[in-house]
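Question: Hello, beginner here. Any chance you could explain the protein record under this note? Any guidance would be welcome.
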Amino acid sequence: MKEELYTISVYSENNLGLLNRISTIFLKRHINIESLTVSNTEIENVSRFIIVVNMTEENIKKIIGQIEKQIEVIKAYYHTNDESIYIQSALFKIKSSLLFDERQIQNSIKNSNAQIVTVSPEFFVIQKSGRKEEIEALYNELLPFGIMQFVRSGRISVSKEEMKISELLNKQLN
């Protein structure tokens, strides 16, 4: 079986230590987590972990089984890139003088659909949301000019198919 990039969605109660236990599941199997994001969900008191990993489907099924054994986990799903809608976000901090001296920077911002979110006398900050490849392309365009700081978020995603987590919770509560 070939390895593929998968997005794992884990719905759980928001309890202390769960992130550590979930990351240990990957650590024990020597699986690198490409991206990890945790946030609230549309359901009150339920958190969602979005974990991106590169592995085989056979192994992802085993990982999902291990994750669902955690007491606080309500349900875990996995999706391929084709089954998800996803983006990341990045911030680039650049010297302010370059914004006016280097026309190419302005062109890069415009062509990549990025936005300037703040400007000060010393620096300006560009925000870019999109696929990892789009962010890396902008990074590579800005790199020759000097990037003072750079940060990229983990993936956020929603599945194209309904996951019916609300329905599952209602059944558990009744």
